[in-house]
Amino acid sequence: TRMLDIGCGAGATVRLVKGVRAVAWAGGVELSPQMGERARNQCDRVWTVNVERDMFEREIDAGSLDLILCMDVLEHLADPWAVVRRISTLLRPGGRLIVSVPNIRHWKFIARLLFKGDFHYTRDGLLDRTHLRFFVRQTAIDLVRAGGLHVIADHSAQSFRATDPRHWIVKLSGGRLIDLMAKQWIVVGEKR
After folding, report:
1. I need a surface site. Which of 23, 104, 153, 179 has the fewest CB within 10 A?
2. Long-range CB contacts (within 8 A, 24+) of 74-77
């Protein structure tokens, strides 16, 4: 019933969670003052701070949260492992951290790098100019474990329909090629 969204933007994810769960309290952390102001419509408390530099978590009781979301934010940080360690202390036993990070092992990136020698940053996507860290499945899992959490799920953020060739590539490979098909990893850690 108590959640925190790191990199909450305008609060859209908090609004979605509230649509499917009873949320008694929702907090958000957002770097952009404009987005943070908009998030106040969804969150009970918004900290407009730099999550790496400012110790906002001192204002939240340790062991008081059921859910912390880090959706598409940790790859923008210089030391995401330190942030995960800090925020994991806010989870109650059984509380969960859900992390979403892009997969640098995606086949399109590898093909561009291998055949074109291309590693040019772009305005958005996998090679977003603001990405400071890159992850594959195992390093995303290691990131969640850095908070002392037990990983209970790790999977592709995308599901492929039977009409999508990627579905058949993964299926025919016995799941071994999912690491090349996934654009993004979702990792769920639980505090024991």
Report:
1. 153
2. 74/99, 74/101, 74/133, 74/143, 75/101, 75/102, 75/128, 75/131, 75/132, 75/133, 75/134, 75/135, 76/7, 76/130, 76/131, 76/132, 76/133, 77/51, 77/52, 77/132, 77/133
